[in-house]
Amino acid sequence: MTNGASLVQDVLEIYKSAVYELDTEKFLSIYAEDVHIYDCWGNWESKGISLWKESVIEWFNGVNEDGYLLKVDLNDITIQENTNIAFVHCAVTFAAFKGNTEDKHRQMTNRFTFGLKKVNDSWLITHEHSSLPIDMQTGKGIFNLK
Fold first, then answer.
1. Are the CB atoms for 8 and 99 separated by under 8 Å?
2. Residue 27: its pLDDT value, please?
């Protein structure tokens, strides 16, 4: 699957636009077949594109059913790369808007780490880890950016 991501930054832009468009195929195009995901939600991990696809479809269907547009912002991006391997960490903010309005319904920020490899001149995510800090008093996740 070719995603046209000749730069690591391209992968991040495809991620953002695919989430906004709720485009499962476009979103999955930036992931390797053998991707290993540690996500904040649902399963402890997803190994392989098939399991990840199930999670993405469920996520996008839920956003669509609720009638939201999901905008993604990436902050504090650090990219380290060599010829074939790259490492990215950043804060990813997901903001849900009702339809095409500026009526923000909710927002949360996760910490993300991506491991990427170059395949046929395109960067693919081989490992993704999202996390939230935990409030030690309540045991609940902290969803706000810093």
1. no
2. 97
DSSP string, the chain: ------SHHHHHHHHHHHHHHT-HHHHHTTEEEEEEEE-SSSSS-EESHHHHHHHHHHHHHHHHHTTEEEEEEEEEEEEEE-SSEEEEEEEEEEEEEETTSS-EEEEEEEEEEEEEEEETTEEEEEEEEEE--B-TTT--B--S--
CB within 8 A of 1, min separation 6: which ones?
A: 28, 29
Q: Which residue has the tokens 């409030």?
A: 135
pLDDT value of residue 1: 54
Question: 8-131 belongs to which CATH class?
Answer: alpha beta
Please check the confidence at residue 28 and state whether its pLDDT lies above 90. Answer: yes
**Whole-number Å distance between alpha carbons of 106 and 98:** 10
What pLDDT digit, counting tens, does each position of 91-112 carry?
999 999 987 777 788 888 899 9
Q: Is the pLDDT of residue 81 over 70?
A: yes
pTM, entire model: 0.90
Place of tokens 């905008």: 71
